[in-house]
Structures are given as structure tokens and as C-alpha cells.
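Trying the structure run again after the queue cleared.
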Amino acid sequence: QVQLVESGGGLVQAGGSLRLSCAASGRTFSIYAMKWFRQAPGKERESVAIIRWSGGSTHYADFVKGRFTISRDNAKNTVYLQMNSLKPEDTAVYYCAVDSGTGYDYWGQGTQVTVSS
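Done. C-alpha cells:
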């Protein structure tokens, strides 16, 4: 089992920044990758960014490229999502999830990000 605790969400004006954190505990040796997802009201969940635990390679959804940065601190078993130049359409609940090699089996509780215009 891997437990995930997210933090860092909040209310910010358009153009502002937030940094989300996702701290993992438990069987962290099983982590293959971690991904941030988001889900806005009435919309489907979508992938935002992913980072491989070993090597640190990253991939971003087109709608956040150049604005968001995913990073990790292996020593702290924590992944971050630095979000800059936020837009109202970035408003959503953001979730982190762990891929242990068999899919995204472990999820955080979610953190609300609200961007006002």
C-alpha cells in the first residue's frame, strides 16, 4: 500500500502561482511513476503531468506546457507541481496518483485549486 497526502491548493488570481505537494508513504519502493490529474466540475478527469520515479523524465499535457513543472524529491518521497500563469480554466480538484507498474492504484484525497478572473 502507498498512502498519498496532497497539499498546496487554494484560491489565486489569474496569472498567479501555486505549488502543490504530494507526499507518499508506505511501500514507496514500488513507485514507478507519479502523475497529477485534475477534474473540473462537470468534466472528465484529465492527466496533467507525469514523472518517472527513477530517472525523473517528465511529460506534460499540452494545455499546461510552459506553465506547469512537475518535480520530485526522492529522499522525501514527494512530488511537486509548480503551477505558474494560472488561468480560470485551471480551476479543478487536483489529484496525485502512483503507478506501481500495474496502473494507477493509489490516489490522494485531492486538493482544490480555484483561479479567479
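The first strand starts at residue 2 and ends at 7. Worth checking whether this holds up in the mutant runs.
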